[in-house]
Amino acid sequence: MKGTGIKEIILDNIAIPLRYIPSFVGAIGFGMVLLKILRDNPSFRRRLKELKGRVFLFDARDAGQRFYLIIEDGDIKVLPHFGRKADVTMRGEVKVLFKVFMGEEDPDTVFFSRRLEISGDTGVAVHFKNILAGTLQ
Which domains does the chain possess? Predict the structure, then answer.
């Protein structure tokens, strides 16, 4: 672990506690992290308005959790359950999703390396990926 920062240690182990906490607690924590990312990246927040009303489902296989990301007016709400089918479903590890949102992983790279599986409305998924790639650099 020489040279590994605290953030990397946390990301490497984030799935462990998520396996044991209720899904609503995990959604709150995930939402808080996304709120910080939005605050640190105002251009990302502005561009999210282009996806208003879209629903994304992230299935965190490693944590046994599912989180719905609902885009509303440049904000992302995170819920453990939602009454509507997701426009886009993303399956992968929690760490991968966090790194994509933080701009530390290229969305294309994680998709083509199969560390993040994406299904659903391809146009919405590509638009979201382009927003991530263009605003979190």
Answer: 6-135 (3.30.1050.10)
